[in-house]
Amino acid sequence: MEITIETIEHVASLARLSLKEDEKIRLTSDLKNIISYVEKLNELDTSNIKPMEHVIPMKNVLREDIVNASYDRNEILKNAHESGEGGFKVPKVVE
Amino acid sequence: MEICKLTACQTAEMIRKRELGVEEVTKAYLDRVEKLDTSLDSFVTVCNEEAMDSARRVQKRIDSGEAVSKAAGLPIALKDNICTMGVKTTCASRMLGDFNPPYDATVSKKLKAADTVLLGKLNMDEFAMGGSTESSYFKITKNPWDLERVPGGSSGGSAAAVAADFTTFALGSDTGGSIRQPSSFCGVVGLKPTYGAVSRYGLVAFASSLDQIGPITKDVADCALAMNLITGHDCMDSTSADIKYPDYLEFLKNDIKGMKIGIPKEYLGQGLNSEVKEAILNSLKQLEGMGAVCEEVSLPLTEYAIPAYYLISSAEASSNLARYDGVKYGYRAEKYTDLLDMYKQTRDEGFGDEVKRRIILGTYALSSGYYDAYYKKALQVRTLIQNDFNKVFKDYDLIVGPTAPTTAYKIGEKSKDPIQMYLGDIFTVSANIAGLPGISLPCAKDSKNLPIGIQFIGKAFDEGSLIRAAYTFEQNTKLDMEPAGLSTLI
Amino acid sequence: MDYEVVIGLEVHAELATRSKIYCSCTTEFGGEPNTHCCPICTGMPGVLPVLNKKVVEYAVKAGLATNCNIASFSKQDRKNYFYPDLPKAFQTSQYDLPLCFGGAIEIDVNGVKKSIGLTRIHIEEDAGKLIHDAWADGTLVDYNRCGVPLIEIVSEPDLRSADEVKAYFEKLKSILEYIEVSDCKMQEGSLRADVNLSVRKRGQREFGTRTEMKNLNSIKAIVRAVEAETKRQIEELEYGGTIIQETRRWDDNKGESYAMRSKEEAHDYRYFPEPDLLPIVVGEEWLSQIKAEIPELPDQRKSRYVEKFELPEYDAAVLTSSKIIADYFEAAAAVNSNVKAISNWIMGDLMRAINEKEIEFSNIPVAPEDLAGLIGLIDKGTITGKAAKKVFDIMFETGKKPMDVVKEEGLEAVNDEAAILLAVKEAISNNPKSVEDYKAGKKQAIGFLVGQIMKATKGKAQPQTVNELLVKELEK
Ligand SMILES: [Mg+2]
Ligand SMILES: [Zn+2]
Q1: Which of B236, C203, C268, C387 has the highest CB neighbour count under 10 A?
Q2: At what angle do helices B48-63 and B22-40 cross, to 10 degrees?
Q3: Inter-residue contact A76 to C37 (CB < 8 Å)
Q4: Is residue B195 in some structural domain?
Q5: Which 35-94 residues of chain A touch chain B by CB within 8 A?
Q6: How many domains are contained in chain B?
Q7: How far apart are the first and last CA of chain C?
Q8: Would you tell me which residues 459-478 of chain B have a C-beta closer than 8 angstroms to some C-beta of chain A?
Q9: How far is the CA of C152 from the centre of ligand 1 (A)?
Q10: Angstrom distance (rounded) from CA B468 to CA B223
């Protein structure tokens, strides 16, 4: 599939990035170059190879169902750009 | 005696013997940072008052005869993607410019518990994406050997600060070479531990399956000391290995007789700067002289490691960095029309170019219809690369080669071409792909008087052998490691 | 045109763990906004998840109780999308390797039994809550619920009517209650359903285009939404329109659904394996431990009631439909062997009182032993059935013991023949018309006279004695 400016617009929208026109153009050519470079992987036959999701062979890392004290709310909210009434504030959400 | 020239081990011992005071040492480092870092730009945040406060507290503990760690009183500094409660943690991004974590990373906690003194937070490539520390939103860190050159990256601030004697040691993080390559560029020792050996809790995630925190130190003994402080199982990190961790200081033995070392022929091939190649070949002779058995081996998939790495790391990053949306913390755009627009403007303005490039690549690689072709393919190649290493490690104790294909380059020289920049990771990414430990230490200097790094890669959780080989090499290789660029400032 | 509706349900059940799925914050319902939170469940930079063991055990339990296969190897994945209630901008869920798969449960609609397939049960985390009325110009985000563990139970598109949907949902709810993995409180959002619905012409093989209705949180709403959406789709097609595949929101007040604006964009969730969490491997030993904890399930209990208590199928089904009711029944049956009377009382007066007073079954003020005691008083003739109703109402009101109420209210049955005879004679002399009717062959006229006698004795006269004496007097 050819990578076009529409590709970038679609991917940017999935990633919630509002790109300026010059950024779109630059990223189109960057992504084209990078994708044609990574397609080098197609030289390798991986048809029966298991994808490696974890580099260490561990499993069942679990914690017991124990409650510990939560954080002070002020600590949770203190880095927010906008907050009040004990909550984070975002522009009106229309559902 | 110049306090800041001492190694961490020397300093700690003198503090314990009351030959040096913690406040005195802390003050010496803070003064040096204040005087010289205006030219180097290695720190994002300096904790002047907090550092002096904790220095006083630690000294009190020492004076009262309380049991203190072997590192008590050491002033240290952390890469700015390691969370520190009450001290800004910015990831060198506009996005987290004011972020003040209400929690400590596990390593921060451990270092505090070991009575070290936090001097401040170190510059890096934005969100650890880069190899030159040029993508920091705040400043470009300079290489102490030549102020017109990059210190490498992404832990460039950490490597430069250690090389400049701004701290007894520093921590960095390594996703594709980000500890080892800047250590090589700045002439210091940097170790990326086995994936799972150091807790990632509180390390701001770039690529979760590849990231590891590790020490950057003045010499190999300091590296062992720092490893003792940061390794260990952590129940806050599901990927933390629950094994018995050794005392790394016990591996400081000047002896590699009979050690079997493999040199992958792919690590000496095209793209390698001729001076670097010569230095590595020389080092191999030295290693043989020290009693090691060095033989050529092959890691045929080396050239595939970079594309696999960029797909995996960018895909994970696109998801890890999605949380920066202007709601809970961090930057929010000034102007926006509604929620969706707030997200888009915030992320466009809050992230720099390289970060956006990787988010785009990663989002693309995971998107509907492309997952199998790119992301899954890369994970399959990951399996093949690990198999490659397993084969070699059946017969060899260590793998050796250059850390980076070149020495430090000029600021601005490579930042325009992403692929050129990515190729700089050719010798380091494989260890991340396979989760293996790797150490870089200086082995020579080139004709421009810039340090050249040699890298040892070991078996999983065999950092001990890395430290032993690196220590032996260091003890038998006399190098003048006084950074030339810095001396012009003094 | 004759249409058939095809429905599949995705049911989300909050698990009854104490702590959240990936951190140790409480799962308690409610609380001031953002007070059940920590850096992990609010997605702060650098934090990492560690899976709650109970979540796996509860999900496996649910799988076993619904005849699922339990995956020997299962993993967690990230589902990526942006929404303010999702602090990490991904939901940790399961994609291609869910914990449980391929199950089925049996439903019964008006005596017709049918097996409904379960595609899968997977574990995932709940999102936060958006509060729209805090400000005029903004929405408040509360992360208390963020990270509360959920299981998502996905059915096959096997349901064909609102009745089947209701039966399926109630059966599922009952199973989850029996195995005690969820409190299933729908009004607190512990249990909610998404309905996937399409219609097709009867006989047509392919499915029609389906819509999804999100977050239905009462059985009534589910039934109403299914009925309304079926009607909407059929009408749309009848008038030559087409169905658009979309997510719709059900407005239970208005009784209609509308397309959700925020979900307009075609979703591309970019699922990938969660690198921060390791595989879940449920081995033989662990599995048999969990199996051992599964209690008797509704269907098994129902059979037992039919066999052991000799109750009619219908009674057994109603009593076992909820574990709390069934437990109540058994507690009563343990002290009084008149199980049919207990069953009648539970299905009759008890249910009626609960519905009238709108209280939860778990909060019934009448202890099961006391209901059994009340029935015992009737059986012994201490009180009449009529008086018992009054006693019960007072017990329900006050929680008092039956005998105490009987005494306080003076409701002991009168079995004193002389006193009853007096009342009988009075009734006969006061109602000559009824007596005449009776004598003319209208035997039902006796009912009125009995009523008069009971009234005169305040319902305390033994009905049998009343009948005997009355007939005797009339036949004189
Ligand atoms: Mg779901
Ligand atoms: Zn929490």
Answers
A1: C387
A2: 160
A3: yes
A4: yes
A5: 35, 37-44, 46, 49-56, 58, 61, 63, 71, 75-76, 78-82, 88, 90-93
A6: 1
A7: 69
A8: 460
A9: 6
A10: 11
Residue ranges and CATH numbers for the domains of chain C are 3-289 (no CATH), 296-409 (no CATH), 417-474 (1.10.10.410)
Residue of C nearest to B196 (CA): C276
Residue C352 C-alpha, separation from nearest chain A C-alpha, in angstroms: 39
Residue C264 has pLDDT above 50, yes or no: no
pLDDT of the residue at A16: 97
- Is C263 a residue whose pLDDT tops 50? no
Count of residues in chain A: 95
Asked if residue B86 is part of any domain, the answer here is yes
Residue B121, phi then psi, degrees to nearest 5? -115, 140
Above 60 in pLDDT, residue A50? yes
- The one-character DSSP state at B371 is I
pLDDT above 70 coverage of chain B, percent: 100
Residue C448: pLDDT band (50, 70, 90) is: confident
pTM confidence score: 0.93
- Ion ligand 1: residues, CB within 5 A, are C 152
pLDDT in tens, C356-386: 988 888 889 999 999 999 999 999 888 988 8
Q: Do C18 and A14 touch (CB under 8 A)?
A: no
The domains of chain A, with CATH numbers, are 5-43 (1.10.20)
**Cβ–Cβ gap B319/C42 under 8 Å:** no
Domain that holds residue B193: 3-261+395-487
The per-residue pLDDT for range B199-221, each reduced to its tens digit, is 999 999 999 999 999 999 999 99
Q: Do C278 and A54 touch (CB under 8 A)?
A: yes
Q: Does a structural domain hold residue B288?
A: no
Average pLDDT over residues C135-159: 97
Question: Is C216 in contact with C194 (CB distance < 8 Å)?
Answer: yes
Mean pLDDT, residues B130-148 taken together: 97
Nearest to B132 by CA among B409, B482, B442, B478: B409
Predicted pLDDT of residue B212: 98
CATH code at B199?
Answer: 3.90.1300.10
Sort out which chain C residues have CB atoms less than 8 A from A54's CB and list them.
275, 278-279
* Residues of B in Cβ contact (< 8 Å) with C44: 101-103, 328-329
Residues C119, C121: Cα–Cα separation, whole Å: 7
Which of B320, B336, B355 to substitute to test the interface with C, most C CBs within 10 Å?
B320
| CA distance, residue C118 to nearest chain A CA (Å) | 25
Report the largest interatomic distance among the alpha carbons of chain B, rounded to a whole angstrom.
69
Amino acid at B378: A
User: Does pLDDT of B19 surpass 50?
Assistant: yes
Q: Which whole-number Å values give the CA distances from B136 to A19, B282, B442, C162, C261, in the listed order? A: 20, 36, 26, 59, 38
Residues 6+ apart with CB under 8 A from B336: A91, B342, B344, B345, B346
Is B52 within a domain?
yes
Range in C166-175, C213-222, C270-279 the model is least confident about = C213-222
pLDDT of residue C418: 83
Tell me what ipTM this predicted complex has.
0.97
Ligand located closest to C269 CA: 1
Contacts of A51 in chain B (CB under 8 A): 376, 379-380, 382-383
Residue B441, classed as helix, strand or coil, is strand
- Across the interface, whether the CB atoms of B339 and A90 are under 8 A apart is answered yes
